[in-house]
Amino acid sequence: MRIPKAIQNTVEAFERLPGVGPKSAQRLTYYLLHVPQGELDKFAMAVQNLRKDTIICSECLLIGETDPCSICTDEQRDDSLLCVVEQPLDVLALEKSGKFKGIYHVLHGKIDPLNNIGPEEIYIPQLISRLQKGTSYLGKPIKEVILATNPTMEGEATAMYLAKQIKSKNLGIKVSRIGRGLPTGADLEYADSTTLDQAMNGRSEY
Ligand SMILES: [Zn+2]
Fold first, then answer.
1. Structure pTM?
2. Which of 5, 83, 123, 126 has the smallest CB count inside 10 Å?
3. How far apart, in whole angstroms, are the C-alpha atoms of residue 186 and residue 178?
4. Interval between CA 141 and ligand 1 midpoint (Å)
5. Do 163 and 63 touch, CB atoms closer than 8 A?
6. How far is the CA of 62 from the centre of ligand 1 (A)?
7. Ligand 1: distance of its center to the CA of 68 in Å?
8. pLDDT tens-digit readout, 46-105
9. CATH assignment at residue 29
10. Distance from the alpha carbon of residue 171 to the mean position of ligand 1, in angstroms
11. How many angstroms separate the alpha carbon of residue 121 from the centre of ligand 1?
12. Could you tell me if 23 and 91 lie in one domain?
């Protein structure tokens, strides 16, 4: 039996997604065959507009609807605290916990020599130049950088590299690392709000 091309194409599209194997891709595709056409159109439209209707903030590299983003332009935030994270999802997790009121810098990755990802491949140069400028988008001084990369081997190595880089520039900006509470090897993204609060409060200076 020949599998219809439309089905094949959809299966292949799902297979390209992270964490989706051939079996799941098939199951999802056959599930979609039972969904009303109107729902499918909405689904397709959402995917189609995903990149078109979002923009990366040229200040903090967060993905939002405006550049600069709504966090960088928020007068109510404490711009003296800048939190460095690996991914936009980490910002969502911290925002959900609601205790951190500072600003962010999203690296969009971590230093990972085994996969040929060095400091230049992620947004480290942009972070350094922000800190050298010394002020936020709203012109307020940045006083502390909180390194909130994941407590994994690569995340720790990235934090260590950043601490060394920032300190060598003698910018008079405090450098700290989020504290215990986060289990080793865990991702920030999956931590609950209480754990995140504890990690943020328990940060220690490098
Ligand atoms: Zn921003």
1. 0.86
2. 5
3. 13
4. 16
5. no
6. 6
7. 5
8. 999 999 999 999 999 999 999 999 999 999 999 999 999 999 999 999 999 888 999 999
9. 1.10.8.420
10. 22
11. 20
12. no
CA 45 to chain centre: 24
Tokens of 58: 């040229």
Tens digit of each residue's pLDDT (9 = 90 or more) over 3-56? 999 999 999 999 999 999 999 999 999 999 999 999 999 999 999 999 999 999
CA distance 144 to 22: 46
Same domain, 47 and 86: no
Rg of the chain (C-alpha set): 20
Q: Tens digit of pLDDT for each residue in 150-199?
A: 999 999 999 999 999 999 999 999 999 998 667 776 788 888 888 888 88
Tell how far the Cα of 25 is from the centroid of ligand 1, in angstroms: 35
Give the CATH number for residue 161: 3.40.1360.10
Distance 33 CA to ligand 1 centre (A): 40
Residue 118 · residue 125 · CB < 8 Å:
no
Give distance in angstroms: CA of 60 to centre of ligand 1: 4
- C-alpha 188 – ligand 1 centre gap (Å): 20
Within a domain: residue 20? yes
